TrEMBL record:
Keywords: Heme, Iron, Metal-binding, Signal. Residues 39-53 have a biased composition (Basic and acidic residues). Residues 31-58 are annotated as: Disordered. The keyword Metal-binding applies. This is Putative monoheme cytochrome c sulfur oxidizing protein(SoxX) (Modular protein). Transmembrane segments: none annotated. Residues 1-22 form the signal peptide. The keyword Iron applies.
């Protein structure tokens, strides 16, 4: 009982939730299922909710050509799709999708954020979220002027799989669904972006001159 009282006190002090089953020890066996059900209701989100933005399982087949600055480029749009730059910015700002702004500063987007602090993004599953535009990390190089440094085909290659250019990079491959190790079972076989999303992001990157 003393231990439970201390746990309740600690919970009050530090503001964490303690499972219902720890608060009142079930007195009779018949109470146990009810207590279990209660603690389940408070449990953290299940693992199956990890991939909840409609992540695609298909990746396009593409032809790799020789780039100008980089060794490799994908010169043809994936699946022949036409990109939409505004949507591309949304995918880039989305915390669970591109999350590019976590690593890359983009002056143009910082300037936009002064007027429009966040962007509404509707993920592939139809769920709409509001994502901040004004918080940028500096783990990667700023993307200012990236369209002057690389061809469209090189930018596409970098979004699809940056390890083809920078083998040790921490930047994720956004259109790849195999060859990874220790992927969470719920996310196995999924890519982050589908072909259309890659084209949308490439369309936005092309505006960075
Ligand atoms: C976890 C951090 C991280 C994330 C997230 C990330 N990148 Fe990168 N990116 C990097 C790093 C680091 C480099 C530099 C290459 C290297 O590792 O040597 C880079 C390089 C690049 C380059 C080449 C820049 C140059 O001037 O050479 C482009 C273009 C790029 N990233 C685009 C993106 C886009 C678009 C997204 C989101 C869809 C993104 N990155 C997400 C870390 C990240």
């Amino acid at each position: 009982m003393v231990r439970i009282a201390m746990a309740v006190l600690a919970a009050a002090m530090f503001g964490f939730a303690i499972p219902a089953s720890a608060q009142t020890a079930p007195t009779a066996a018949k109470d146990a299922p009810a207590a279990a059900a209660k603690s389940e209701a408070k449990a953290p989100p299940k693992a199956k909710d990890r991939c909840q933005d409609g992540e695609p399982s298909e990746v396009a087949t593409y032809k790799i050509s020789k780039g100008e600055t980089l060794e490799k480029a994908i010169n043809e749009p994936l699946d022949g799709k036409t990109g939409d730059a505004d949507k591309g910015l949304g995918w880039m700002a989305h915390r669970r999708l591109g999350n590019c702004l976590a690593c890359h500063k983009i002056s143009k987007v910082l300037a936009m954020a002064e007027k429009t602090p966040s962007i509404k993004v509707t993920a592939l599953n139809g769920k709409t979220s509001s994502m901040p535009l004004g918080i940028h990390g500096e783990i990667g190089p700023p993307l200012d002027g990236v369209a002057n440094r690389y061809t469209e085909g090189e930018l596409r290659m970098l979004v699809v799989d940056p390890k083809t250019a920078f083998p040790d990079t921490i930047m994720p491959a956004f259109h790849k669904n195999s060859g990874f190790t220790r992927v969470h079972p719920d996310c196995q076989g999924l890519a982050i972006f589908n072909a259309q999303q890659v084209e949308d992001v490439v369309a936005f990157l092309k505006t960075l001159k």
